[in-house]
Amino acid sequence: MVRKANLTFLPLVFLFLLFINTPSLGVIYYNRDDGTQLFLVGLGVEKLGDLKLEGIAPEDRFTPGFYSEGRLALYLQGKIKGKYLLKLAFDSDKPTLESAELIEPEQYYPVYGDESQLSTDISSNGKLYVMLKHEQSHLLYGRYSTGFNESSFANYDRTLRGTKVHYESKKGDYELTLFNVRTIQIAVKDEFPKERTIGGICDERGTKKLGSMGPYYLSQTPVVEGTEKVTIEIRDKNDPDKVLESTPQIRDEDYTINYSTGRIMFSRFIPSWTSEGNPVVIVVKYEAIPPGKVPAYSIIGGRTKFNLKKDASLEATYLKDTQSTPAHILTDLNTKLKLGEKINLTAEYANSSKTYEDNAHQIELNYAPSPKFNLTTSYKRVGPNFADFAETESDVEKYSIKSEFQLSENLSFSPRLEESRDNVTRDPDKATNKTITYSADIGYTPAGWPPVTLEFQTENKKKEGKQVFSPADSTDQTISFSLDNTEGSFPYTLELNLQDSIDHTNSSIDTSETGATLTFPLKIGKTTDGELKQEYIFKKERQTSKRLSRTNRTTFSWETSSGEKISIKGNYSLEDLFCFEYNERTQTQNASILAEVQLSDKFSTKSGYEFQWIRGTSPSRSNILSFALEYVPSEILTVNGGYEVRWETAEDESTTTYVYNFSGEYIPTLNFSASLEGSIEKGEDEIGQTISFSMEGKPYSDITLTGSFSQESTQEAKTLNLMTRSIETGLALTYRPVNFDRFNAMLKCEIKRDEDRTSELIPVSTTVLLAGEGIYDITERLSLLGKYAQKRLSENIRTTADMIVIRPIYKLGKRIDIAGEYRILRHIEAKDRERSFSTEVGYELTNHIKLVLGYNFQQYENLKVEKNEWRAKGPYARFILQL
Fold first, then answer.
1. How far apart are CA 637 and CA 635, in angstroms?
2. Which of 283, 511, 515, 597 gives 497 a disulfide partner, CB atoms 3.0 to 4.6 angstroms apart?
3. At the top level of its lineage, which domain of life is listed (predicted)?
4. Residue 105 has what DSSP assignment?
5. Domain boundaries, the chain
6. Measured between alpha carbons, how far is 834 from 863 in angstroms, rounded to an integer?
7. pTM of this prediction?
C-alpha cells in the first residue's frame, strides 16, 4: 500500500498581544502616498504548521492541512493603492466536510489508521477565502455561487468552492466570467411529501395528510453548509407539474437544518394542501457529499457578454461537467436586439452533449407600436435528447402569440394563443400529444369602483399517432371573475370561477365546477393582522346535471406580535364536503398555532400545536404538539431541548409518537470544546435512540487530545427488546512539542460495534483500529516518516490486517527534494503479504506550487485506478498547492 506524507512548519509571522489567555492581534496599515489602507484582525497561537498528505485518507476527524497548537484565524480587508479591494479570511479550525467523506476504507484496503488524504491539484478545504476586486471586476478563491441564471437553457446556479474570475469593462460593453472547480459535491433536489393519493368520485374524498413542522430528512447527507435553497410551492391540483406559487424560505427564520443528518424543522406548520385543494410541496435544492469513496470531478464554466450597442447584446456560455461518463457539455448562445423603437427580438440556441447530442432553440419577437398596443409571439423547440443542467423539459415544441390592448383609460383586453406538442422529430411509430390553449383577460376599472377582472381560458388536448385508441380529445374551459376592493374603506376581494372538464376517452370525466371565494383582510388592533376567507365549490356532471359534490370552506388566519420578544401565528379552517354519489358527508377541521417568545437574553422558546379532525365515513384525528427551548447562560455554553408528541386515530386504531431531542455546546477556552446531541423517538412499534458526544482539548501545550462517542439503537416498544445498535468510539492523541519542532507524532484508537438482532447471518460485528505515525527531522535536510496501522474485524470469523510505511525525504536544495516510500501490507490469518516501493523528486516552482515527478515500482493492487493515475505502476506527475 503506497502512502505519502509531507510535514512542513511555517514560521510565525505575527506578534500576538496576550490578554486573558487569548492570543490576538489587530493592525491598521495606512499609506498616504499610494492610498493603501489595510485592516487586519488575527487570532492565533505561538506556532503553526502545514500537514500535507497524499494517498488514501482515513475516516477520522483529524483534518489534514494547516494546524496550530490552538487556532489561527485572521481577517484582512482594505484597499491597495486606493483602488483594489482585498478581502482575505483564513481559519485553521474550520471543518473540512469534503475530506471527511472521501474514503470508503472497506472497499480499497482494510487498514486506515493514519492521517492520509486523497491528493487533488488544488484544495482549499474551506479554510481560505481570497477576493481581489477592482471596480466591477474581481478574482476570487473560495466558496461562491456560479450565478449563471440569465438564460433559459444554460441555467447553472450552484454553490461551489474553487476559483472564479469576473471581468467587466469600464464602459460596461463587455463582461467575462470564468470558474473552475474540482469537487465531489453533487447537486440534489428533494421534494416533500414524495407521494400523494386522493381517491373517489369526489376529488376531495380520501385521506389528506395533515402536514407538519417536521422533521423532514434530506435524501443525501452530509449537506454542504449554506448551499440549501428551500422553497414552498403550491402546485395545481389538476396539473402537478404546474407551479402556482413559490415562496423562498429563510434559514434560522423559517426553518433550521442539521447539515450532518439532513434534518429540517420549520418554525411554523406546513400544510399538505391549501384550502382550494392544491397540493403544497416543500422543495429543497442543495449540495451534498456522497457516501463512501467517490472520485472528484471537474466543472468548468465560462460566460461572456458583449453589449454591442445600447440596442444589442450577445452572450455565450460554455459548461463542462465531468461527473458523468461521457462528460456533460453544454454550449449556449443568446442575443437581444432592439430593432428601432418598436421591435425587440430575443433568440437563443443551445447544444448539449452527454449520452447523446441534441440542441434546443427559441425566439421571441415583441412589437409595441404604441403604449396602447403590445404584441408578442414566440417559438420554442427542445430536442428529445437535449439535456441541460436544470433538468427542464425536453422533446417539446411550443408556439404562442399574445397581445395587450388598452382600449380606454379604464378598459384593457389581453388575448393569448398557445400550442405545444411532443414528438418533435415526427417519429411515425410514436404517439404525439398536442395541446392548444386559448385565453383572454378583460380588465375594467369604473370610476369610483374597485377594479374588475374577467378571465376566459379553453384548453384542448389531442393525441395523434399509431398508439391512438380513439379520437382522444379533452377540453377544459375556465371562466373567472375577480373584484379587488382591498384599497376601499371596507376592504375585500371576490372571486367567481366556472370550470368545465370533458374527456372523450373517459366517460366518467364530464364535469362542471362552480366556485366562489370571498376574502376579507382584517386589522385587529395595532399589532394583529388577519384574513377571513369563505369558499363555496359545487360540482356536477355537465350533460346530465347530476350533482357530484358540494364543498363549503371557511378559513381564518392571523398573526400578532409584541415588540421583538413575542410573535404568535394561527390558522383555522372548517370544511364541509357532501358527496352526492355516495350520500356521504365529511367535515374536516384544521387548526395550528405557533408562538415564539424571547424570554430574556438567555432564554427563548418556540411552541406549536396543530390538529386535524375528520368526521364522516372514515373518521380520523391527528394532533401534533411541539415545544423547543434554547438556553444561552453564557458565551461559552448553549443548550437546546425539544419535545414533540403526535396522536393519530383512524379506523379505531390509535397511534402515539413521542420525540425528544437535546443538544449542547461548551467552549470555555480555545484549548477545549465539547458538544453533546441526542434524540429519542418513541412510536407504537419501536423506539429509536441517538446520542453523540465529541470533545477536543489541550491538557498541555504539546499535546492535543480528541475523543468521540456515538450510539444509535432501535428497540421493540412493547418488550423493549433490542433490535439494532451501533456504537462508535474514538480517541486520538497528537504530540507536537513546542520547544522541539523536529518531531511530531500521533496515536489513535477507534472501536465500532454493530448489533442486528433481527439478522441471523452476522448479528454482531466488532472493528478495532489502532494507528500511530510520526515524522522526525534527523538533520535540516533529512526527514524520516513512519506509520503503523492495524485493523481487527470480528464477525463470524476474525480477520486482522496491518500496514507499515517508511518514507525518507532528503532536501537537495532550497527548492528540490527527493523521497522514497516503502510499504508493507499484511493479512495475518491469510498469511498474505504485499510490498510496494516508489520514489519521487519534488521541485518548488514558487513558494506555493510544487511539481512532483515519481515512479511506482508496483501497482496498488487494492485500488481501482486508471492507467494514467500516479497510483498505477509506472511514472506519474502531479502538482501540490502549498498554502
1. 6
2. 515
3. Bacteria
4. H
5. 4-148, 149-184+295-394, 187-288, 616-683
6. 13
7. 0.59
